[in-house]
Amino acid sequence: MNCWKSINISRDYGFLWLTMLSISAIILYFLFSYLVLSTLFPATHLVEYGFFPFLMGLLLVGPIHQLLHCLPLWLTGNRIHFKVRRQRRQVPIINRNVEKVISRKLFLVSLLAPAISVTIFCMFASYFMPQFVHYLSIFSALNIGLSVYDFIYAKQLLQAPKDCLIEDHEDGFHILIRKAA
Length: 181
Description:
By secondary structure, the protein is an alpha+beta fold. It contains 5 helices and 6 strands; from the N terminus they run βαααβββααββ. It has helices spanning 9-13, 15-40, 51-75, 104-128, 133-158, and strands at 2-7, 80-86, 92-98, 102-103, 165-168, 173-177. A hairpin with a 4-residue loop joins strand 5 and strand 6. Helix 2 (15-40) crosses helix 5 (133-158).
């Protein structure tokens, strides 16, 4: 196997730019989703439960996002190692690493699973429980903000050869191709 390309978006794009892009995605997605959903359900009375249940919901978005990344890998029998680290002395970040190399398709599914599944869940939940549309829009927007990294990784991965394999690392991943004979 030869390494075709090493991807580390924190190194390539910079922490500040990625943070600003994530925050912008959160704000724009919330504005768009709340506007659309509140237009669909105009006469709905919004229900408020207070600050602490809202804060607990916000704190659960990150771990649910990580678990949804792992779900396709677990379903295909891959083992995953978790490691908690602090980046720039801030909030602890949970890193996950796959033990062995995996296919490009499986890695793409794993990357996009949280963005797609949480967004679809929040849309359906907004339809059935329109009184919680504000909470669901915020949780979905936060998940999209977390998915910005995944979208950039997926863009890089879509440019890779179709039969490549992916080796996951702490700071990114390596795209491997079979050695030419």
